[in-house]
């Protein structure tokens, strides 16, 4: 994860803070946003290598963020997070080109594996950094 620029987007500030710190300890350069608008603004300032976006957020939901990120950065891998495995939004996200959809609570290992896979790196199950 060394040097990977990750945009972490979730409307729960505690989640963003805790997961962001844990990813940073693994060497990732983590940018944080707690709303869809903030996420798009942050990505405009500096394009991330991977975006991790919660689906259910007030105002601009994760699908709108996915669309905005993909419009501005067509090759950007976007990993979606959802609290419900049967969420129809997750299926729609995959149709829109999401690299993965993970169900919360997600472990740091699962998230790190998904980030590496989205970037074309190590496959799930291989040792992590």
Instruction: Please state how the strands of the largest beta sheet are arranged side by side.
Output: 2-1-3-4-5
Order of helices and strands: EHEHEHEHEH
Beta-strand percent range: 15-25%
- CATH superfamily heading: Response regulator
What is the count of distinct domains? 1
Largest sheet: 5 strands, parallel
Unreliable stretches, pLDDT < 50, 5 or more residues?
A: 122-129
The tally of beta strands, per DSSP, is 5
Gyration radius, in Å: 13 Å
Shape: globular
User: Mean of residue pLDDT?
Assistant: 91
Class from secondary-structure proportions: alpha/beta
Q: Give the helix proportion (percent range).
A: 40-55%
* Terminus-to-terminus distance: 7 Å
Count of helices?
5
Descriptive report:
The protein is 41% helix and 19% strand. By secondary structure, the protein is of the alpha/beta class. It has helices at residues 13-25, 36-45, 62-72, 88-95, 108-118, and strands spanning 5-9, 29-33, 50-54, 78-82, 100-103. Strand 1 (5-9), helix 1 and strand 2 (29-33) form a beta-alpha-beta unit. The protein is built from five helices and five strands, in the order E-H-E-H-E-H-E-H-E-H.
